[in-house]
Amino acid sequence: MAQDNKNPSEIPTRRGVYLRNPSAPQKSTAESVAPKKAESTPVRSGSNVAKVNALRGTGSAPTVQSAPKSDVRASGKSTASRPAVDNRGGSTVKQASAKQGATPAKKAPAGKKSSPAPRKKTPAELSREKAIADAENKLKATLEEEMKLTEKLKADHRRREIQKLKDKAYEITVTAIPGIIVGVVVALLIVFAYYRSISKYSRDEIAFAVRGFEYLDEASEDKKVIEKIEKRKKGDEKPILSLDKDILIRDGAPYVAYSDIEEYFDLSVAGDSKSRTVIIGSSDTVYGGKDTAEFTYGSSEISVNGSAHQLACAPFSLSGELYIPFEFVEVFVKGITIDKRTDKNKTIVSMTKTEPNVYLTGSSNKEILTPDIKDYTNDSSAQHEYTVDLSKYGKSINPSNPDIYLTLVSISSPLSEDYVPDDLINVETRDDRPIQQMRYDAGMAMTALLTAAKAAGYSDITVNSGYRSYLHQSSLYNQKLLVNMRKYDEETARAVTSETVMLPGASEHQSGLCADIHNMPTAMQSFANTDEYKWLLEHCADFGFILRYPQTKEAVTGVKFEPWHFRFVGRTHAQKIMSSGMCLEEYLLTLEKSE
Question: Which residue ranges form the domains of the chain, and what is each CATH number?
Fold first, then answer.
């Protein structure tokens, strides 16, 4: 076996033996020939990686043990050789023999290291490398496909999640929108109802303003008081109460929040919107006792110190605040003077206290005058001449059968609950009141009476209350009874209530034959002190009416004096009743005795 003894690297160069990389660092002879145990890496069978490793000679390929070390002589010549191992293929290459045409290696020039000659790869090696490259490319393509598939799956997942969110949002929206719409509609209805309830009020364009001035004693010697009196005379006094934007205008009438004026008047409020009744009372006044005014929300009827009256407009509650018509202050609050003036389309009201303490009253505090009504004759013909033609009302004023209008309606002689006149007609009333009605003959006679009053210069007299149903009268009575039961026991409360409000069925208003007529903000006994009342008392019988509840007949009628309440009985009976000075109860009793 031939050897190249001149190989300086002492690497055998026999044909068929692979040379180590001459440029790599050389290990010692002992290390180079030491047997090395091949490491095997477990590879999952059937995978592309296992196939590639098999082609490379790794993985599950059998591990080849290196040949045992050969003895190395001191001269560096190899005395024994080991079979060379083809690490790529894993097969042992047999030693080349002379028979195979082995050629001795050429001797390298002295002083130069020999480099291995490039070896041409065999077809098997080329085929194996190609297979490895194809497997790697296939594996790479597979990995790329798997990555694309993964990205697609992720994208599909994201798309599904987004779709779920959209579906959930749509579901929530579809579910919530009807609720939101209902809520908005309800809110709009509430706002609409609220603003409709105050649509007739005006805060933006102030048409009414109030200025309140304090009481000043002109006999005082106090310098401060004297200075204020001088300022008042010059018009330089500053008011202690000033209301502009707190004034509401409803139906053309000014309303004032009572909390804004209670301190000025030294009055307090008891009651709330739940009870619907408010009592306004003062502390002890110089006149002794306590004054009270009782309001019922939504009702124009009030009670002042136990006396029933009627306002032109009803008080109401707004946001828990009591609003009262300013006419209450003008009519029922005493101890002040009120002056009105117009400034740039704004009505400015100046209230000046004339007494240390104001008080409430339902009368003018003057003696009520009772004109003499005994000057009438028993002649049924008209006793007065008028400047207007009233001939078309003649048949109603003096009907051919006047006895049918003498029906007594009272507590002892009530009307049935279902009684409703079948010949009601509309009669003239104020613009701020609902339409009023009376029976045909009574209504025609009332129209003639008001026409004659206008011709005489009393154009502001109107019908304030005509026909009332049984149900309407029940409501009025129960409201008043509720107020009185807070102050009295039930029996006393009913007796007191019946003095001012008739029991249902006992009211003449249900008959359609009577009317409350006056020119005041409310029905007040002080109407008896007016020229309008004197004219009505003198001329009412000409048109078939009588004063139903005279002051001198309270014990007979059981009803307090009502100078505004006139009852139709026809001119024949009216002139006899008025000329005799009797009330209806006494007149009917006289007729019974004469029969």
Answer: 208-360 (3.30.457.10), 391-468+507-594 (3.30.1380.10)
